[in-house]
Amino acid sequence: MTRKRQRMIYVVAGMVALGFATGLVLFSLGDNLVFFYSPTDVLQKGAPANRTFRIGGLVEMGSVEHVAADQVRFVVTDTANTMKVSYQGVLPSLFREGQGVVAEGRVDAAGVFVAQQVLAKHDETYMPPEVVDALKKSGEWRGN
Amino acid sequence: MEGQLTAELGHFALLLALMIAAVQAVVPLIGAQRDVAPWIAVARPAAFGQFLMVAVAFAALMRAFLISDFSVSAVYQSSHSQMFWLYKLTGTWGNHEGSLLLWILILSGFGAAVAAFGTNLPPALQARVLAVQAMIGVGFLSFIVFTSNPLARVIPVPPEGLGLNPLLQDPGLAFHPPFLYLGYVGFSMAFSFAVAALIEGRVDPAWARWVRPWTLAAWCFLTIGITGGSWWSYYELGWGGFWFWDPVENASFMPWLAGTALLHSAIVVERRDTLKSWTVLLAILTFSLSLLGTFIVRSGVLTSVHAFATDPARGMFILGFLIVVIGGSLTLYALRAPALKSGGLFAPISREGALVLNNLLLATACASVLLGTLYPLLLDALTGDKVTVGPPFFDATFGPLMVPLLAAVTVGPMLPWKRADLMGAAQRLRFVFIAAVLVGFVTWIFTTGMSWPAAVGIVLSVWLVVGSLVPLAERVKLFSVPFTESLQRAAGMPRSVWGMVMAHAGLGFVLLGITVLLTWQTELGTVLKPGQSASLNGYTFTFEGAGNVRGPNYTAVRGVFSVTRDGRPVTTLAPETRSYVGSAMTTTEASIRPVWFGDLYAAIGESDGAGGFAARFYFKPFVQWIWLGAMVMVAGGFVSLSDRRHRVGAPARRGAPAGGKIRTEASAAE
């Protein structure tokens, strides 16, 4: 075992590990990226078919409708456009009308966004960065 | 009135700490370069002084919180006079400014500990370590003083505070940050030692023995912190998850992965005097990942389910600091590392080889987590697309990388140093292998719904738990000598060996808990009126009704569910939804009861307005094993830390060509 040979083994082993990891990453990155859309994006680009994505904006005032105790419908707005959302499950405790929201799911045949998950926030003043950007784009952002 | 004086005193102490840190960062370093003893001697008293001043500032802030002095802005922002006293106290670090002060308190605390216990370090090395530690201190202290002063005043004094985020008013999260920071910041020791060694141009086994206990201690604390956070999200977020692959979680997990690799590579430096430049690099990277974690959490650049309101401007400061620290240390590394001479050679199949494999896989896994965490930032910067990388990505990349690592954990300790015989090790492990496959097979036959990754998980966890006991059994010559002699041998065995066995077995418990939980957990969401019931996994949950209860600073809706199995009462669950005074927030307080082989978990949601309540029930099999296993790992770390050879300050540098003599002595000891 010479020093040179030992170094070669390191290099080869490192390449194998990195190659393996790169393969895994490329393989799974394509399928598992979740894109973020604002209601305007959905209108302009169309909703991605057969793919989970995130929608974000403000919960429109007066739009929350409890269909059943664990089934809720509401409208997400970026103030320029809106999107209907339906969700079955317990809503996070900070879900409020007029506040920012991010939901993950897909669009059904009727064009309603069926959320699998409504993201919880830990702080009442927190606004997801994507929502801030979406609101800035539609010119409705009043913060800094 | 005297409360006001205390805050000013604290502020003054903070400024003094900054000045002391500035002196400590420069004078001892020059002293060590030029060999000026009085300049070197500045390091220790400066380290003590800096810690004392930061402690005074921290105590002042804590006092302000305890007596609800709302003239201090941090107290006004995140406290309330009606809060339970413990949460007033822990509210000290429940806000941006206070948590940074805690960061710096721990940083200067580690510096003072090196000054106090590192008496056998060569004075020049100690001075350099303390100087590097002080450089980090200067960065963070000036950040606090100039942008995030925790002791700033509000005028006029508000009559009442805004209240602490209700999620933080919980014992699990109250003590989560201190442990997390002890871990994060603890890795600064490894960093300072690495940079000092690069400046000195010398890394030898003695250096590794000095670094290891600090790294091990930091690793233990970080493990406690991560476990506590995971446990908290399990019972507090109301849906019983234990890990979400969320950016904020990944931020603490990446330093843990790198730190685990560092612990193992430091063993090779200590015992075999090789792998030096890699270990130094790993020490730099581990702390850099800690800083990156602080940046991710504090800046809020990434959307996170654990997100708190943040200030991007402050994030920019940490980002700048990050660039200086990482850029500077890596430049130094590039200049000096080639000078580090490599020591003993070894065959690929050997203890060293196994530890290299460990490092390779941990580093690769860490890199894939890093990529997944930062990918949204990269893509946003490059294309403007907003994306999230979700749990499926991490499951698909991290999981497969862990399989060979976990399989190797059992084999590594069976291999001797330098060169080993893989067949021999396989021979000694054959019963473990048979047992693992047998358990996997039996589970496969007697259960339903098992997937093949679950089968791999079960086999690997048995392999880990039983396999980690084999080196132990061989050392005490179990069954080949009388049992009493085995006991004597066990008592005389180095504690580091016990520690290793516990840590590896604990890892097996964690894996078993995760596998069983993910394979067999069941859940049910429904709406119940009083008197109605729902069944899950053989348990019947009957809704007895809901009522209002009052806490010190909240009101809650509490639902009562009686649980029966085959008609026999099992327990009563009482989940709550709490609304806090002075806050628009509500929190879910799940009710959890351990039963045979798992947890019963109930959460209550909103009323449907017609007497019914949304309720969710879960059966979480083996979930406690995840945290108990992690605690076994931590216990292993502490046992190893109590080994006389690892005790902080125990080792001394011996004659120039280290290695040889020490090594044989150490091998004899094991």
What would a concise description of this structure say?
The complex is a heterodimer of chains A (144) and B (670). Chain A is of the alpha+beta class and 144 residues long. Helices cover 32% and strands 31% of the residues of chain A.
Protein architecture, described:
- The complex is a heterodimer of chains A (144) and B (670).
- Chain A is 32% helix and 31% strand.
- With 144 residues, chain A is of the alpha+beta class.
- The relative contact order of chain A is 0.16.
- By secondary structure, chain B is of the alpha+beta class.
- Among the domains of chain B are: 1-164; 522-623.
- In chain B, strands 3, 4, 5, 6, 7 and 8 form a six-stranded antiparallel sheet that branches. A four-stranded antiparallel sheet of chain B has the order 2-11-10-9.
- In chain B, 54% of the residues are buried.
- Chains A and B meet through helix 1, strand 1 and helix 3 of A and helix 14, strand 1, helix 15, strand 2 and strand 8 of B.
Radius of gyration of chain B: 27 Å
Largest sheet of chain A: 5 strands, mixed, barrel
Name the poorly predicted regions of chain B: 654-670
Q: Into which percent range does the helicity of residues of chain A fall?
A: 25-40%
Reading off the top of the CATH hierarchy, the class of the largest domain in chain A is best stated as Mainly Beta
- Could you give the order of strands across the largest sheet of chain A? 2-4-5-7-6
Beta-strand content of chain A: 25-35%
Give the arrangement of secondary structure elements.
The complex is a heterodimer of chains A (144) and B (670).
Chain A: H1 3-32, E1 33-37, H2 39-45, E2 53-59, E3 65-68, E4 71-77, E5 82-88, E6 100-107, E7 113-118, H3 129-137
Parallel strand pairs in A: 1-2, 5-7
Antiparallel strand pairs in A: 2-4, 2-6, 3-4, 4-5, 6-7
Chain B: H1 2-34, H2 37-40, H3 43-66, H4 73-78, H5 85-90, H6 96-117, H7 123-147, H8 171-174, H9 176-200, H10 205-236, H11 247-272, H12 276-299, H13 312-336, H14 351-383, E1 387-389, H15 391-411, H16 422-428, H17 430-446, H18 452-475, H19 483-492, H20 495-520, E2 522-528, E3 533-536, E4 539-550, E5 554-565, E6 568-573, E7 576-580, E8 586-589, E9 591-595, E10 598-607, E11 613-621, H21 623-641, H22 660-669
Antiparallel strand pairs in B: 2-11, 3-4, 4-5, 5-6, 5-7, 7-8, 9-10, 10-11
